[in-house]
Amino acid sequence: QLAKEQHIQSENYTIFNILSNGEIECSNSLEDECDTEIPGQALIYRPARQHIYSVLLESGKGGAYPLVKEWFVYFGNPLQQPELIQPVKPSIPGGTPNLKTLWFAKGPDVERQRYSTFLACFHLQDGMEELQALEAPVAAFCCLLAYLIMQVSSLSLEDLNAFVALILCLKGKSAAQLAGLQV
């Protein structure tokens, strides 16, 4: 019901579609199809999405999850039919928490459980203490960067430096300051 209400308010439409139809679509991309060194974002983030699906969807008899229909654009995918994706349980001590608990419960224990579940979806649960010490936007960026480095073997040290400079050096700069930067 909450997902439906948020969907009506143009929030969380993706979650609502997964919960109600078992389907998700991302039919646009800004990727260079001539650059075959880096896989498409749809493929890079698929393992994380599989964990997220298992958190969102309840398993049935025998622990099996319903398949999720993905309509994700990437080079070589003609989008003529959805890809059927199997949700995968993330590695969380004590198991995956109930979605209702994660969404509605209050308190510091639930906050920790939400954060550890989020990190587990991106295979980053071992860095929880270090990430909690950072401001939320910086921690989110570090999660994204760490996940990318784990998933994309072709990222170079220069790529890493550019990403780090983006979040640490450019944070809080005005448009005028950014326009005056020297190469």
Notes on the protein architecture:
- Keywords: Receptor.
- This is Constitutive coactivator of peroxisome proliferator-activated receptor gamma.
- With 183 residues, the protein is mostly helical.
- It has a domain at 1-89.
- It is 49% helix and 7% strand.
- It has 10 helices and 3 strands.
- The protein has helices spanning 2-8, 13-21, 41-44, 46-56, 99-104, 108-121, 128-132, 136-151, 157-168, 175-179; strands spanning 23-26, 68-72, 83-85.
- A 3-stranded mixed β-sheet has the order 1-2-3.
- Helix 4 runs antiparallel to helix 6 (108-121) and helix 8 packs antiparallel against helix 9.
- The longest helix is centred in the last third of the chain and has 16 residues, at 136-151.
- The chain is globular, with a radius of gyration of 19 Å.
- The chain starts with a helix and ends with a helix.
- The model has no long low-confidence stretch (mean pLDDT 85).
Shape: globular
* Integer-rounded radius of gyration: 19 Å
Q: What is the straight-line distance between the termini?
A: 51 Å
Average pLDDT level: 85
| Biggest pleated-sheet summary | 3 strands, mixed
Order of strands, widest sheet:
1-2-3
Q: pLDDT under 50 segments (min length 5)?
A: none
Helix content: 40-55%
Helix-strand topology string: HHEHHEEHHHHHH
- Beta-strand percentage range: 5-15%
**Quaternary class:** single chain
| Structural class by helix and strand composition | mainly alpha
